[in-house]
UniProtKB/TrEMBL annotation:
Family that this chain belongs to: Belongs to the ATPase B chain family.
InterPro entries xrefs: ATP_synth_B-like_membr_sf, ATP_synth_b/b'su_bac/chlpt, ATP_synth_F0_bsu_bac, ATP_synthase_B_chain
Protein name, UniProt field: ATP synthase subunit b
Transmembrane segments: 6-26
Lineage: Bacteria, Pseudomonadati, Pseudomonadota, Betaproteobacteria, Burkholderiales
GO molecular function terms attached to this record: proton-transporting ATP synthase activity, rotational mechanism; proton-transporting ATPase activity, rotational mechanism
Membrane topology: Single-pass membrane protein
Keywords from the named record: ATP synthesis, Cell membrane, CF(0), Coiled coil, Hydrogen ion transport, Ion transport, Membrane, Transmembrane, Transmembrane helix, Transport
Chief location category: membrane
Pfam name, any one: ATP-synt_B
Amino acid sequence: MNLNATIFFQMLVFFVLGWFTMKFVWPPLTKAMDERRQKIADGLAASEKGKADLAQAQARISLIEASAKSETHTRIADAEKQAAQLIDAARREAEAERARIQAQARQDAEQEVQRVRDQLREDVAALAVKGAEQILKREVDARAHAELLSQLKAQL
């Protein structure tokens, strides 16, 4: 065989193989590589977007947390104020009740003292009548001398 013919056929096979590769093999490979490159770029973009979303979410969480803490402190302060008001109101009510009970007790004591004084006056008047009876050795009519006995009770 001739060396030139061999080289010619080898070149012809090489160019046919090159043409075949460029026509049928190379486009799917470049398409696959482009798709893969696009997927990787999309993945990186999604990753960056995810990082940005995460940062935004963390910032929102920090704001919500700060707001919740502030609201909690406000509610606690309000609850403490309300508790203090309730305690003060209960204390005032208790003081008013104590004053009312003391006034009632004083009034009851005064009434009891007045009743005991009246009873004592009657007992003293009765003793005075009995004493006068014994002194006079005769009976004094209490009905007849009611006015005199009233004056005696008033003086006592």
